[in-house]
Design a protein that fits this description.
The structure is a homodimer. The first copy, chain A, is about 65% helix and about 0% strand. In chain A, helix 2 (about 20-30) crosses helix 3 and helix 2 crosses helix 4 (about 45-55). Chain A contains 4 helices and no strands. The first copy, chain A, has about 60 residues and is mainly α. Chain A is globular, with a radius of gyration of 10 Å. Chain A has helices at about 5-15, 20-30, 30-40, 45-55. Chain A binds a DNA duplex (30 and 30 nucleotides) through helix 3.
DNA sequence: CAACAAAGAGCCATATTATGCACTTTAACG
DNA sequence: CGTTAAAGTGCATAATATGGCTCTTTGTTG
């Protein structure tokens, strides 16, 4: 899966759950700045960061 | 998917294809040291690094 | 055992990510 | 227009990934 698609999916999932970036950051333990960078397509997160995010969203990296 | 499972899958896939770490490193453009660290479970690769590796192996991160 | 190939690990320099803080932009209201 | 919430950005620093080189360990084969 392409990077941009991944971002879209994560972003959409967060919005469906009606969670703000700030809340997701807190819940996942990822820095708000990091999350913002990721969602705005300017990041290259580590696998750990991505997993923290997807875990909270009930998603999975495979 | 858990980190360790991911590693196992990648490793197994590489072995099935009978490709050495060295060759995979060259083909994927990832440093040999980085690949070794990843496969030995001591890494936390960036998404880009992981994708470079899985691309060559004909796998996909989703 | 000896020899070889592949994998793992230490050291170290450089590049990049993760993070907080403050500020700006955007969007949706009244 | 003014207000407010959410998202995006600039900047600095700490932490971590990357990658080359070298050495050690492991596994296989004669």
């Amino acid at each position: 899966m392409h990077f941009n698609e991944l971002i879209k999916i994560v972003k959409k999932r967060r919005e469906v759950l009606q969670v703000t970036q700030e809340t997701l950051a807190e819940l996942s333990g990822v820095g708000l700045r990091t999350l913002k960078q990721f969602e705005s397509g300017k990041g290259n997160p580590t696998l750990l960061t991505l997993q923290k995010i997807t875990d909270v969203l009930g998603m999975e990296v495979t």
